[in-house]
Amino acid sequence: MKFLWQYIKAYPSYMVGALVGQLAFVFVTLGLPTLLAQMINKAIIPQDTSALYRYGIFMAGIAIVGAFGRVLKSWSVAKMSNLVTMEIRNDTYTKMQQLSHHEFQEFGVPSLGTRITTDAFMLLQFIDLLFRQGLAAPLMIVFAVTMIIKTSPELGIAISPIAPITLFMVLWISKVTRPLSEEQQTDLDTINRIQRENITGLRVIRAFRREKFQEKRFEDVNKRYEKVSITLFRWMAVTPSAFSFIINVVIIAILWLGAGFIGAGSLDVGNLVAFIEYAFHALFSLMLFANIFMMYPRAAVSSRRLKEVMGAPISVKVPENPVTKTETHGYLEFKNVDFAYPDADEPVLRNISFKSKPGQTVAFIGSTGSGKSTIVKLIPRFYDVTKGQVLVDNVDVRDYSLKTLRRKIGFTPQKALLFSGKISENLRFGKYNATQHELEEASDIAQARSFIERLTTKYDTSLAEGGSNLSGGQKQRLSIARSIIGKPDIYIFDDSFSALDFKTDAILRKALREETRTATTIIVGQRVASIMHSDLIIVLDEGEIAAKGTHAELLKTSPIYYEIASSQLSQEELNR
Questions:
Q1: What is the DSSP string of 70-138?
Q2: Which pLDDT belongs to residue 368?
Q3: Are residues 154 and 278 in the same domain?
Q4: Are 39 and 141 within one domain?
Q5: Domain holding 334: CATH number?
Q6: Is 66 helix (H, G, I), strand (E, B) or coil?
Q7: What dihedral angle (degrees, nearest 10) is formed by the CA atoms of 252, 255, 261, 265?
Q8: Cβ count within 10 A of residue 26
Q9: Are 487 and 517 contacting, i.e. CB atoms less than 8 angstroms apart?
């Protein structure tokens, strides 16, 4: 639990507050039985009224101290547990932002969601339990046992075998519940994954009438989670029940043995009452301590899962002295680039080389799986090359700070992803301080202004999660506007025009050519009509450059390009 402790120790004042509150609580809990015993022996039995009032005032004073201690403890623990959990969530979220695509694939998005929510909440509960009961319980046990021995050593020795029996039971239950806790959290990851798939793929599920199949998948994992949880909670329910039984048996034994000691004259009635209180508090504190042992395996699993995220090595690393400024802008070069995904046996890209300078447009075309999208993901360093170099403004992308590199790039992904919030907020992802004029200019170039202006609240219109209240073409146009609003040095459009009709596509590209005349433009496309006016077209085949040149040159020299073009263009267009 070193992971958790490094956060807890950052709040020493709250730990001190919790400790002081616990000490006050222990003082009250153990002081009252002592006063009660003296009251019975010296005031009640002799019927001494003045002594009775005196002891009553002392007990009232101790009760006030106890109330203050309990309030201080509760406030300190609540504050500390929530602050620690907040810091853990913030640090985990920050680390997630640094993970590359490879790390995200390793953990899985549903699992990361569970870790930052459910696992963090589990640690909050553990911290709360630890500092509410974990500090007081050991102190209470030590002092209660001391008072037991002081009050009646013979009676204390008689009930001493209970302690090792109870400790063995606690340790055994903790060992049994740990693997169950791990299985429970894994099943919860699976539940989140299936739920996420069902929500994001709802239209596909309905289109293929697979509702029952998906319901069965969810039901199966939910039942497995239910079975593990019930088994775990049954074990956890055994502890308080067993302890209650043990406490009752011990009290009966004390009364039975104590009656004999009183009859023999070696024990007073008041001391017997105090002894019962001390024994009860010792056993009850042991039960509270057992609750922590029961909670510990679940918290340890959650702590380990969060530590895995926090300690995950980042494959896309930034050098100690990164480049933050360049004299040139808009130059791009690939030098003999090979790339293989981390777990792949074979590279998906081999010997990719090309150059581009400001004002030029480079387009990639090829069959599905030829590596087009992979190439453009290497430019902003979503992945690092396996071999060779990617140069932006004559500097290897691995030598840049990520912030500087990605500020140079306007990336429009294959899937137009928008965030819940206003249209203006989504556009300002490209430039956080963009003015209203810049929003309108960018949306005008992306051919999005026309439909935005028709909306009642225009740029203040709220978007649903993923922009699901917009059409595919509208989402793509907003995504393009978001990329160009920052006026980057390199524009990347990863098949970003597929949802547009031919007329809108043509108008948008004409506007883009004017906007990007001082920058490099990289286009991944499936439509020949969308890339035919590019300065350089690169034809990819199974991760290699099969041909490159202009549209006219490739029609003559590349059978692959001619085949693609002839399937999309008329004979008249091919002969132009």
A1: HHHHHHHHHHHHHHHHHHHHHHHHHHHHH--HHHHHHH-HHHHHHIIIIIHHHHHHHHHHIIIIITHHH
A2: 80
A3: yes
A4: yes
A5: 3.40.50.300
A6: helix
A7: -170
A8: 23
A9: no
Number of domains in the chain: 3
Amino acid at 281: H
**Residue 42, pLDDT score:** 58
Its sign, for the CA torsion 297, 303, 306, 311, is negative
Dig out the tokens for 467 from the structure.
Answer: 């922009």
State the Cα–Cα distance between residues 423 and 478, nearest whole angstrom: 8
Name the 3-class secondary structure at 323: strand
CB atoms closer than 10 angstroms to residue 177: 25
In terms of domains, do 81 and 174 share one?
A: yes
Give how far Cα 467 sits from Cα of 426, 461, 474, 494, 508, Å: 10, 11, 9, 19, 21
Please compute the mean of the pLDDT values over residues 117-146 and round it to a whole number. Answer: 81
Residue type, position 102, single letter: H
Neighbouring C-beta atoms of residue 465, cutoff 10 Å: 12
Lowest mean pLDDT among 57-61, 216-220, 308-312, 502-506: 57-61
Q: How far is CA 456 from CA 420, 462, 560, in A?
A: 18, 11, 48
Does 154 share its domain with 276? Answer: yes
DSSP one-letter code for 384: -
Q: Which of 33-42, 63-72, 89-98, 178-187 has the highest mean pLDDT?
A: 89-98
Q: In the predicted model, what is the mean pLDDT of residues 464-486?
A: 84
Domain that holds residue 44: 2-310
The per-residue pLDDT for range 199-252, each reduced to its tens digit, is 777 777 877 777 788 888 888 888 888 888 888 878 777 777 777 787 778 788
299 and 432 inside one domain:
no
- Please tell me whether residues 103 and 224 are part of one structural domain: yes
CATH number at residue 144: 1.20.1560.10
What average pLDDT does this structure show over 52-76? 75
pLDDT tops 70 at residue 446: yes
